[in-house]
From TrEMBL:
Pfam families: PBP_GOBP. Keywords: Signal. GO terms for molecular function: odorant binding. SUPFAM superfamilies: Insect pheromone/odorant-binding proteins. The keyword Endoplasmic reticulum does not apply. This is Uncharacterized protein. It comes from the Eukaryota. Residues 1-16 form the signal peptide. The lineage of its organism: Eukaryota, Metazoa, Ecdysozoa, Arthropoda, Hexapoda.
């Protein structure tokens, strides 16, 4: 019985790692797609200094592009709380922390672009670097 339990744990762990790796690959493709479009292209230095470039329209366009393509926001800019929660859960196992992060970070701002930037920055501030590393 113990062997079956250990084997099940190994399989669950491997699936979790492969799911996260698949998501990271997906995010890279999405980033590249957004970068390949002149309307959503942004210099990487601006992204690495996101907090200093909050009002840059190219930064906003890029962040919204990524947020919509990954499913965090809908085409109209509205947040998709169920998707946000599921994506956070990929890298945060504590359900209470996931719920807190959704409440604190998934907040609609004046524009869809500002909403996307705020979401990414808030999650990053709390150590959830799955989405982007700034």
């Amino acid at each position: 019985m113990r062997t079956v339990f250990v084997f099940a744990c190994v399989i669950v762990g491997a699936l979790a790692v492969s799911t996260l790796e698949a998501e990271e690959d997906k995010l890279k493709r999405i980033h590249d797609e957004c970068q390949s479009n002149p309307a959503t292209y942004v210099d990487h230095e601006l992204l690495h200094n996101l907090s200093q470039n909050l009002d840059n329209p190219q930064v906003g366009a890029h962040m919204l592009c990524e947020s919509v393509k990954v499913g965090l926001q809908k085409e109209n800019g509205d947040l998709d709380l169920a998707v946000i929660k599921s994506k956070i859960s990929l890298s945060v196992s504590d359900k209470a922390k996931v719920d807190r992060l959704v409440r604190e970070c998934a907040v609609k701002k004046n524009t869809a672009e500002k909403t996307a930037i705020n979401l990414f920055m808030c999650l990053d501030k709390d150590g959830v670097t799955y989405f982007h590393e700034f």
